[in-house]
Amino acid sequence: MSRTLGASGPAVSPLGLGLAALGRPGYITLGHAEDFRGERSVEAMERQAHEVLEAAYHSGIRYLDAARSYGQSEAFLASWLKSRGLGSGDVVVGSKWGYTYTAGWRVDAERHEVKDHSRPTLRRQWKESQTLLGPWLRLYQIHSATFESGVLEDTGVLEELGQLRDSGVRVGLTLSGPRQAEVLRRALELRVGGSPLFSCVQATWNVLERSVGPALAEAHAAGWGVIIKEAVANGRLTARNEDPALRPLREVAEQLGTTVDAVAIAAVLAQPWVSVVLSGAATVEQLQSNLRALEVKLGDEAHERLRALTETPETYWAKRSALPWN
């Protein structure tokens, strides 16, 4: 069931594990506070991260995704990789730069992260990521590239990323917000030293927010790896959300004898341009539920029913922005 991360990329599993909810005590997933049984010390969360990582590896997951701003995610991942004795070819690890974690391990922090896409931040965070993840780090991504940050027009940053690319590290970018498609198409045009700078994109696509789909198909056709995040929309496409508007999703899941999150993830896996879909599981139980997506086959009728859930990008991203840290 393995896939490749782009036309010339490494082999990866169709389902990956993202550590956004595992590396810090607060996140915007619905019900995140319930996932740690009141134990959110660094030590307790490292143990839980290791449990989920071990279950993921045992289940065949071979792509692992972290970021400098995900609290201790890189450190938790590094300590698990070392304790497991895995080699650099056993898993594919991706991380991101551009946000700095500022919550001080508090859920009620005024600001959880600060965005800065400058060249000094890239240099500092690359060194930090490389120090922790060393030989396992095979993909480094701009975290949430937008037109507003100016990162795709910063020649100094682009030159620095070009040097990373030339050293053998795959360089990618992640997207966020209602203009994902426009940013991606700009990134597809970028060349540094006469060669394409990027070879991978990570974007939000789910049954609620489909707008970036055509641009992702273009990236896939250009040989890029395509990683999908937020397949369950930060918990909105799970059993925790009792919104009556999600009735079609629940009905499809009931008919197929599976979970709503598995159906949501299966809808993403069915897209022909997808390399990896990230599970954002914070518990082993959530991971096991997500993994059921690999067994789900959605017919034309199911896809059509799920299409009725689609929101406008503006509506989707406004709702996401309103989700509380918990």
Automatic annotation (TrEMBL):
Gene3D superfamilies cross-referenced by the UniProt entry: NADP-dependent oxidoreductase domain
Domain of life: Bacteria
Annotated InterPro entries: AKR2_Oxidoreductase (IPR053135), NAD(P)_OxRdtase_dom_sf (IPR036812), NADP_OxRdtase_dom (IPR023210)
Residue ranges of domain NADP-dependent oxidoreductase in the record: 45-309
The species this protein was found in: Archangium minus
CDD domains recorded: AKR_unchar
Protein name: Aldo/keto reductase
